[in-house]
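Appendix C: a fully annotated inverse folding record. The material below is reproduced so that readers can follow the format used throughout the book. The structure is listed first as tokens, followed by the designed sequence.
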């Protein structure tokens, strides 16, 4: 590996800049991949149309005119011709070219026809003789121009080099993937579009194979943990279900059956229950908990927030008190004496169901006989509960619940050793939420609709992306929204403000007021995202909707439409043109699975779920949704590689296992 300064064209200054971003050797330079490629190709006259980017060879017919618009902004316009089509070309800040553009000069213009075929807005103009068709990599390195990098890399490529091939040759051949030496040439000097395709395929495969090896190794570590086969009282459970005020949906029935099968097995249950907000996961977990209690074991329930923990506490008590089940709450907000009492109950088998936040498992709670652990909104926990429990020598059956649905194919590949139950169908009688995108400019007419609902006895949420105003952000805060609403609505309505910076008792007071129906408008940050369940709230207005992820918007929207009332969600944006493409899916569907799939395909799981929680690495190029086929191949190959158990397989697997801790997949 030789040093950068040996390369012609790289002086001390450029060398320093490259060093600063971690490029020290010629090898580093070879592995500095382009950010994107620009393809230069002439378009045929026949392909001319509006609004499409085109590169056209044209002839200048009239000398350019230059207009000065304001400081640092000038526009040059000229007439050109191609196949007897005459039109005007406009380009900004290129007046220095005017001299060279005499009539009859042959040039290539790149840009698009806007509005009509007489006006072409160009982003680039070059002389025909200087136009070279081909694919040009763009590296986007700060302060170093691409030409310098390209030349330096070309120079390195033309010398002999030995690159270590990390992938087994067998799989390169099987999957038609270029080897490392071909890759390096194709990546920096692609000749054809298919070269770029191959490059991408190899990088994605390499990333996903590493990911797959990790998943497969974990699966081996975790599968087949022995646990107790639980003997629950099926008659009591049946009696409980028959007395519910509603009939379970088919999906709820199926999920319940799947869980019961797991409970009976003498292996540790490890199941994920997925269902949209409001799909009725909670009652399924109540039924499962009751069964476990009748088998003589204890149940622990972990919720992501205090609010949710309390809510589960109320729900479980409501359903199960009549069945002689003792449900207790254990959270750090309780007095020490109360916590002591509850701890005593837990360790002396005087509590059957213990509900708390995630500290429940980490703290020194001494369970008498923990048989079932229920984790709500599992994606919000960063910790490895399973591992932690195993360290304590406890292997309860585990049920994870998530309202951020992951498409089946993705879920299966992420949670290899986790079984999954889906609740797709919503309880009947539920109406879809009507969702609309509204420009901020039209707030007044929107408020008329909102107050109409309130006048009919309903309540409304206004959700904002931040608490206070800042000088640097265009986003609307809770404070500003409060000012706007108080100003526009005068004192006609009871308005409250909720956000995470308030003290807990204040938060509870505000929530209580909203639950009781006293508050008509609750202005809040996303703290209401999970758990708050006010059936009478039928309107949600989300300010700066573009500042939120799609899955998150859908979660937020799940706070309304919680019974038979028609509910409305308004997504407020500054510029509808700008926002429509992304947000339209929320207008079109209420199906959380479709929304999350769409979200995942445009953003990738890391961004959707947050990197640490999701256990999904930040891939350089791979996208678990769009690259599902390659993922499937990688999973197959990983299984084979681990099975082979030869030197190469061991090296690959060890590398993958070493990184398990940092990926939190357990
Ligand atoms: P999730 O936990 O999936 O967000 P919940 O369990 O809180 O959903 O259910 C939302 C509401 O629907 C609750 O008020 C619950 O009582 C009600 N519900 C649940 N299952 C049914 C059903 N099968 N029929 C009618 N209502 C139901
Ligand atoms: Mg829930």
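Designed amino acids, in order:
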């Amino acid at each position: 590996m030789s040093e950068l300064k040996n390369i012609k064209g790289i002086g001390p200054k450029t060398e320093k800049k490259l060093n600063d971003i971690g490029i020290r050797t010629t090898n580093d330079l070879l592995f500095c991949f382009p950010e994107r490629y620009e393809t230069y190709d002439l378009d045929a006259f026949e392909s001319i149309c509006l609004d499409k980017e085109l590169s056209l060879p044209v002839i200048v017919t009239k000398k350019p005119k230059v207009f000065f618009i304001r400081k640092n902004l000038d526009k040059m316009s000229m007439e050109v011709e191609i196949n007897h089509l005459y039109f005007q070309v406009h380009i900004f800040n290129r007046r220095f070219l005017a001299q060279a553009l005499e009539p009859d000069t042959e040039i290539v213009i790149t840009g698009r026809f806007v509005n009509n075929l007489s006006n072409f807005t160009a982003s680039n103009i070059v002389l025909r003789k200087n136009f070279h068709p081909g694919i040009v990599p763009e590296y986007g390195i700060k302060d170093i121009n691409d030409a310098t990098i390209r030349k330096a890399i070309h120079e390195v490529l033309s010398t002999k080099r030995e690159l270590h091939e990390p992938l087994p040759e067998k799989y390169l051949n099987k999957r038609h993937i270029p080897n490392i030496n071909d890759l390096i040439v194709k990546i920096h000097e692609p000749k054809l579009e298919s070269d770029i395709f191959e490059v991408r395929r190899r990088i994605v495969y390499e990333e996903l194979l590493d990911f797959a090896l990790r998943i497969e190794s974990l699966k081996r570590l975790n599968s087949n943990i022995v646990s107790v086969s639980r003997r629950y009282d099926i008659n009591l459970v049946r009696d409980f279900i028959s007395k519910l005020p509603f009939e379970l949906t088919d999906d709820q029935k199926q999920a319940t059956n799947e869980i019961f099968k797991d409970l009976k097995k003498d292996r540790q249950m490890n199941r994920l229950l997925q269902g949209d907000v409001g799909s009725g996961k909670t009652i399924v977990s109540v039924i499962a908990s009751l069964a476990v209690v009748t088998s003589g074991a204890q149940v622990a329930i972990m919720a992501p927030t205090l609010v949710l923990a309390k809510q589960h506490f109320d729900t479980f008590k409501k359903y199960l008190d009549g069945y002689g089940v003792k449900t207790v709450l254990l959270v750090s907000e309780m007095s020490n004496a109360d916590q002591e009492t509850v701890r005593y109950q837990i360790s002396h088998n005087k509590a059957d169901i213990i509900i708390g936040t995630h500290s429940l498992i980490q703290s020194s709670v001494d369970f008498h006989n923990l048989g079932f652990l229920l984790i709500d909104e599992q994606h919000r926990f960063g910790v490895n509960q399973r591992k932690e429990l195993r360290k304590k020598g406890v292997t309860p059956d585990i049920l994870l619940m998530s309202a951020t649905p992951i498409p089946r194919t993705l879920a299966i590949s992420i949670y290899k050793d986790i079984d999954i139950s889906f609740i797709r169908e919503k309880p009947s009688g539920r109406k879809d939420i009507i969702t609309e995108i509204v420009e901020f400019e039209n707030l007044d007419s929107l408020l008329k609709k909102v107050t109409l609902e309130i006048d009919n006895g309903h309540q409304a949420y206004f959700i904002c992306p931040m608490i206070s105003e800042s000088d640097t952000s265009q986003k609307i805060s809770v404070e500003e929204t409060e000012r706007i609403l108080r100003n526009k609505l005068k004192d006609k309505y009871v308005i409250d403000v909720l956000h995470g910076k308030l003290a807990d008792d204040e938060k509870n007071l505000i929530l209580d007021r909203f639950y009781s129906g006293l508050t008509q408008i609750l202005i809040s940050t996303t703290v209401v995202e999970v758990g708050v369940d006010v059936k009478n709230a039928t309107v949600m207005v989300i300010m700066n909707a573009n500042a939120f992820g799609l899955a998150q918007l859908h979660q937020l929207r799940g706070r309304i439409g919680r019974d038979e009332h028609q509910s409305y969600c308004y997504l407020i944006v500054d510029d509808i043109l700008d926002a429509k493409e992304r947000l339209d899916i929320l207008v079109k569907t209420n199906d959380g699975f479709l929304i999350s799939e769409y979200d995942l395909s445009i953003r990738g799981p890391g961004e959707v779920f947050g990197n640490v929680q999701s256990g999904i690495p930040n891939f350089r190029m791979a996208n678990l949704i769009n690259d599902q086929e390659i993922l499937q191949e990688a999973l197959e190959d990983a299984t084979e590689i681990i099975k082979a158990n030869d030197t190469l397989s061991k090296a690959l697997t060890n590398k993958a296992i070493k990184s398990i801790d940092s990926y939190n997949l357990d």
